[in-house]
Amino acid sequence: MSTPHAILIALLEKPSSGYDLARRFDRAIGYFWRATHQQIYRELGRMVETGWVAVVDDDADATRRKVYRVLRAGRNEVARWVRETPLGVDDRNAFLLKLRADAAIGPLGVGGELVRLIGEHRARLNTYREIEQRDFSGRASTDARQLQYAILRAGIMQEQMWLDWAREVAPLLGVRADR
Amino acid sequence: MSTPHAILIALLEKPSSGYDLARRFDRAIGYFWRATHQQIYRELGRMVETGWVAVVDDDADATRRKVYRVLRAGRNEVARWVRETPLGVDDRNAFLLKLRADAAIGPLGVGGELVRLIGEHRARLNTYREIEQRDFSGRASTDARQLQYAILRAGIMQEQMWLDWAREVAPLLGVRADR
DNA sequence: CAAAACATGTAAGTAGTTACATGATTAT
DNA sequence: ATAATCATGTAACTACTTACATGTTTTG
Q1: CA-based radius of gyration for chain A
Q2: Most CB atoms within 10 A, among A143, A154, B132, B142?
Q3: Which chain A residues in 57-96 sit with Cβ < 7 A of strand C?
Q4: Do residues B7 and B47 lie in contact, with contact meaning Cβ atoms separated by under 8 Å?
Q5: pLDDT below 50 — which residues of chain B?
Q6: How far apart are CA B125 and CA B118, in angstroms?
Q7: Strands B53-56 and B67-70: what pairing?
Q8: From its phi and psi, is residue B51 left (phi > 0), alpha (psi between -120 and 50) or beta?
């Protein structure tokens, strides 16, 4: 959804070369956001053009290694993206990305969005529960039917988990998860 | 990851027109797998070429509406894909897709893959727990640090949830979630 | 000195998104 | 009749993936 912003935020946390970024996107970051080295180099090139990042003139070390840092315009762009890009319930990872941005250059007012998302997740959970009541409340079930129920259970458990998590996070963002 | 297979499986569950599929992918199916009508029509066209699906000659009803059904080759392709395409821990939705295929034309032996995935999810959960111990066991935390911990918590809770779910599903697939 | 890891890129192909386009049927 | 919904498609653009390509530095 937003590879350039993922890269900007990673660079805000620590200025890096394309190669370093590729490694970071394979380890810690990669657990929730992926990018190949081709994507990274392409985006870095574009963002230099745009003026969001610049190569740190590695004074002494005149090797071929290029370390990038985020410029003021890039920082502003991250803040703008966090504030003005509404996410949906399916953009879990993008929301975590916003939290990382908030940790790096915050506060950026992510609390409001968390509250909205809690509402949307609750609505979806209710939808799932209604389907559960309607289609899976009876007794005897065929194998196929039990599998279909398992798929729905995955959705239900996922929403419950997200809401549990949101309840933990809300106070950190200065909002209430009310009820 | 595999739009054509998602469409084939939806068609196995119920022969439909492109328009119907688009609606189904917006409702129930859309909660875990998305496809726009352009993708759907394009894939349907391709799959007719390949011989995986065919238009049901809507005898009487000679309107412009085209209902597609899955041919034997398409069915075989689904079975092949389910059996021969190993998924990673991040392909949650693709695994649910396999369960739907198994419910529709199973059994396809998905149990083995579930067992493998349980192992991989446990490994990832352990990695997260180690990071937790190493980086977040101390007391006093800054705001930024607490947010970083919240991101890690999301990962931990997600893995725990998946493992809980897998424990429910295992018996349906004839395998044990052992321990 | 050879292999592994470092480091950055181009090119081609595939998939996905967004915008445009058209016409038929159904309901008000 | 006119608006909404049904129904199917093309075209252009953007993003992503996979393969190719090249040279450097470090380590055994």
Answers
A1: 21
A2: A154
A3: 63-66
A4: yes
A5: 60
A6: 10
A7: antiparallel
A8: left
Q: Do B147 and A92 touch (CB under 8 A)?
A: no
Q: What single DSSP character describes residue B1? A: -
Q: For tokens 């389907």, what's the residue? A: A131
Longest dimension (CA), chain B: 75
Tokens of B1: 């990851």
pLDDT tier at A169, thresholds 50, 70, 90: very high
CA-wise closest residue to B108 among B124, B92, B128, B85? B85
What distance in Å separates the CA atoms of residue A136 and residue A128, rounded to the nearest whole number?
Answer: 11
The position carrying tokens 């053009």 is: A49
Whether residues B102 and A131 touch (CB distance < 8 A) is answered with no
In the block, which residue shows the tokens 């066991």? Answer: B137
> What pLDDT, in 10s, does the model give residues A24-80?
999 888 899 999 999 999 999 999 999 999 999 765 455 678 999 999 999 999 999
Q: Which two tokens stand for residue B138?
A: 């101390």
pLDDT of residue B57: 72
